[in-house]
Amino acid sequence: MKKKHFVLMIILAIIVIAAVILIFFRGVLATNLAGKILLKSGKPMQFGEYTVLVDKVEANKLYGIKVTGKDKKLTAESGDYTYLPEQNAIKFNLVNGAADNYDPENPGAYQALAFKQSRFTIKLRHSD
């Protein structure tokens, strides 16, 4: 009977340890899973009102990034991203790039700027 009790305690300890690991590392796991599912090299992807094109994806590292929307265009040499499951969004950290902001009421007028680093968050879909 003691042997069964010992085995049960070992199994329970393994389950508790696995649960703790999942709680502490869920962001990393979710980001890696989201990258494998959501971000594909060389393929335009639609997220809400934005289209994202990435030349190369390595885990959560990105190279040759282009983000376009109806009034915004971002390009960057490289960057990384974090999937935010609580917000159903992807947060991009872009490095060495440019941003163009267009005025929807005056398409000829736009603001252009270069950046060393910029953060940009895209909601994956609207929550009702």
Structure write-up:
This protein starts with a helix and ends in a 5-residue tail after the last strand. It has 1 helix and 6 strands, in the order αββββββ. It has one domain (2-123). Strands 1-2-3-4-5-6 form a 6-stranded antiparallel sheet. It is 29% helix and 52% strand. With 128 residues, it is an alpha+beta fold.
Write the layout of secondary structure elements.
Elements: H1 2-38, E1 45-47, E2 50-58, E3 61-68, E4 72-84, E5 89-103, E6 106-123
Antiparallel strand pairs: 1-2, 2-3, 3-4, 4-5, 5-6
Entry keywords:
single chain; 128 residues; alpha+beta; 6-stranded antiparallel sheet; 1 helix; 52% strand; elongated
Number of separate helices: 1
What class, by secondary structure content? alpha+beta
Order the strands across the largest sheet as they lie in space: 1-2-3-4-5-6
Roughly what is the average pLDDT, rounded to an integer? 81
The total of beta strands comes to 6
**Beta content:** over 45%
Number of structural domains: 1
Summarize this, please?
By secondary structure, the chain is α+β, with helices and mostly antiparallel strands. The protein has one helix and six strands; from the N terminus they run αββββββ.
